[in-house]
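[step 3/7] fold_predict: job queued, chain A
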Amino acid sequence: MPIQFSIYSSAEAVGKEVWNRLAAAASPMMEWEYFHALEASGIVSPQRGYRPCHLVACRDGQAIGLAPLYERDRALVEFGDGGLVEYLTELTGIPYSCGVVGMIPYTPVPAYEFLHDPTVAPLWADLSLLDYLDYHCASRGLLTSRLYFVTSARPQLHALLRERGYLHLQAEYSIWFNRHYADFEDYLQSLKASRRTKIRREWRAIRNQGITIRMVPGQEAPSRYFELAFRLYEKTWHKHMGGRIHPFLNERFFQLLAEEFRHRSAFAVAEQDARSIAMALFYAKEGTLYGRYWGCWEEIPFLHFATCYYRPIAYAIEQGMRMMDPGFGGEHKLLRGYETVPIHHYVKFHGARQRRVAYSILKQLQRQHAFFRDGPEGPTRREQSFPEKT
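[step 4/7] structure written:
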């Protein structure tokens, strides 16, 4: 029986049961509850430049593949291509920023993927979704399809994207890996002596001030922790961003995390004199701990490192987790045992003339920068034609 494709205007319309069945092996941020929190809170909406167009492939009436997607008329705040698409739009006047984006909005973590039923071949499901994505862009007159922070766990998907004519852009990211450490001290022994001494000194400075740091699973956390996480996120945002840009996240998003996503959440809570002075929010699933938002009421030396890195690493070792993703940015992570890994973004240009213009400019840029992992080339596989979607 042929595959049928449908486009849904929200995660709510796709449905929790269908979405999460396909996302069983994916990261927690690829699950229905997280996308629903983004959309139902209003931070991901047409008003903010995100028009959901989640693509579902069905066979025999059952969903076998899902590509969480958004139509965009701008390319700002996408984190992935460094402003490349926006630059091309401004330089040429061609609306390359009008396209379809596969990403986890406002969440720059290398975890995005196409979801699929475990009973079907992943590569076959990926190819089906990519073929229809090409058709969707052509039928809607959209000039780019952009996939950001694609997970490294699916090397066949990466090969397929390059075969399908996607430009590959690569950057770097920091991850902590559990190399079968027995405890935190065992982890410290893997570092240079000078770094071990530095971390021990920082930990001691925190303890000497009577500060304790607890890891609290989301299901054991009071709802006020989610409210506090928002207040601290807001405080941190204004500290670094000022008042020029409105915070990406809002209070309703954190409320929805408390209502629907606490089973994937965890908190590192720093306390002094029986009061919370700092907090970091994490998500966890299948042996991986994902660091997200941090904030503090008082600026105390080393408190950030202890709350966001040291205590969570100790917790990950205690829980037998394989790795800890601390979040985007921060060269200081490498001094604390984190390792550099590549992150991958992909952009495809649609429309013959528009593609030629883009590649002409990109080839010039390639000679000046090492930004492109693979040079801009045309599609190497015949693009499939589709009838009108069902």
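[step 5/7] annotate
The chain has twelve helices and 15 strands.
The first helix runs from residue 11 to 14.
exit 0
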